[in-house]
């Protein structure tokens, strides 16, 4: 694993910009997906507000509204064919994705969906919940379980990236995920208006010449 290297803040900010730009241009072509991300982002901001006072409620909002709207956009509305804008196949983009690709998301969402069943048969969630949480009721207990799953998913992939790529990539990705709701509001607030005009796919004219390192399906592309 690479050691954390001292680097100017500008380098980390540039890495964050690249990760955000790649995420947008590769995985957010559908205006429906973009609009659902706007819904997700707003509800995530609300969840952040609850996080400091009630993590269980924050997790319920984040998983039941934010994550379901966000991931349904990716699974059901984002095109899976050849990406002519970036000259890359869907399979190639899945292979080089920094964060959770669709295969990893299936695992994460399966854990989320299985949690209520486990909690129903084991009110202390296999001994992981304390008595105070259990006594607070099923819904609040579920919120705490989902909070741990969400936080665990973030920490797991961050550390995984430390070994898979490098420490900087992992740290930048974690910052990106945490701040995505605010960035998505700025990026996609016009998407519902475009959708109302009948534009189902973002033409991505701004991505045709991004000034980065060329088509993603060049040999050795790793972003």
Number of helices: 9
Largest sheet: none
- Which bin fits the share of residues in helices? 55-70%
Instruction: Assess the beta-strand content as a share of residues.
Output: under 5%
Spans of at least 5 consecutive residues whose pLDDT stays below 50 are: 211-223
Distance between the termini: 18 Å
General form: globular
Secondary structure tally: strands:
0
Mean pLDDT: 91
**What is the oligomeric state here?**
single chain
Number of domains: 1
Report what the structure shows.
- This protein has 223 residues and is mainly α.
- It contains nine helices and no strands.
- α3 (55-77) crosses α7.
- Mean pLDDT is 91; it is low at 211-223.
Tell me briefly what this model is.
By secondary structure, the chain is mostly helical.
Topology:
Blueprint: H1 9-27, H2 31-51, H3 55-77, H4 90-96, H5 102-121, H6 131-135, H7 138-164, H8 167-188, H9 191-196
Helix pairs in contact: 1-8, 2-3, 2-8, 3-7, 5-7, 7-8
Question: What labels would you give this structure?
Answer:
single chain, 223 residues, mainly alpha, 0% strand
